[in-house]
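Readers outside the structure-tokenisation community will struggle with the description of the input data as it stands. What matters is that the chain and its backbone geometry are given together, residue for residue. For illustration, here is how one protein appears when written out as sequence plus structure tokens:

…
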Amino acid sequence: MFSVYVATTEFRTAEMVASLKSYSDSLVVLGWADTLDKAWADCRRDIPGVLLLDDALLAENTGWIETLSRASFPIVLWALSLDPGSARRALALKAKDLISGPQWKTDLVPALERVAIPFHQRDKQDGRILAVFSSKGGVGKTTLSVNLALALAEKSHDPVLIADLDLAFGDVSAMMGLKPALTIHDVDPDNLGHSVDRIIVSSNGPVSVLPAPLAPEQAEDVQSAVLVRILQHVKADYRYVVLDLAPGYHDLNISALDVADLILTVCTPDVVTLRTISQALALFRDQFHYPDEKIRLVLNRTGSDTGIERSDILAILKTQRIYELPSAGSMPVRAANDGVPLISKEPRAPLTQAIRAVADDLEHEDAPTRGFRWPRRRKS
């Protein structure tokens, strides 16, 4: 038994959905759309066992191919009649199958069954991936990542992982007082699960770390496809996986943003940062086609004397979904220098309390899954 989402042209929708519903004993039609914008938003919100995509719709919207090729669910491309571009689009899409010809109604469901993720495999609870991102450096991104991970572990009483994906200049290990011998650079793609488990470092507390490379030149060796496999592996064992991303829009960052369930976009109340964050939000919406609910804004260092008011920020960024973190002066820097997270060093500080409030809000959103207990990771 599996679910199917259908994306096809308006005049073919009824025929396709009716054909699939005749197989009600083996599949569930999760939904359908005649635009890729709606199909992508629906599938990101409620991931299907397989997406059945009409090649005619894709041919009219080829700008979507790159985005769809990074989907976390399998895709089968359907063509009423093949044209020279169908196979090329299927290949670029990384489609699991291409169905066409006069016997498509007979061939379709067996093809979907071969590639779909069945319900019994989807019953296993996966953790939530939270990407902490900013298009500008120096805004407190790593401080938020480390302390939010600790606060989430406190709230959920479940294991939490920080993946340091600022591969060239990551500071997560130093901020937590860790000196890893192995890093993400040492993951063996041919033995991925075992090598990832060996590399993950357990801190003294409830949070584990997947460290960034030890040398900046090693950053380019980490491939996006391998990163996606790593994240799919670890989210089965952690309630939350917090990604501390580098600034920018290189392939690895984009893959991480695509996989993330929620993007916490960090900014500070200054003109330069607000301009770059406004551009980032437009990119997320118009180019990456992320749904609005995937993006959450974090305004750091509120109360700073910059001359920019909260109302100005909301008007510039056109959002009400915002967390606010107060300025803490040199306190975060002193904590980082000591290799002790702020939440442990200064538990009563207003910034610590604000980060705990963010964690509380995120944990409240996950309330339906609180009965599930994540396995504790085995020590290597």
Observations:
- The radius of gyration is 22 Å.
- The CA atoms of residues 69 and 330 lie 44 Å apart.
- Residues 141-156 form the longest helix (16 residues).
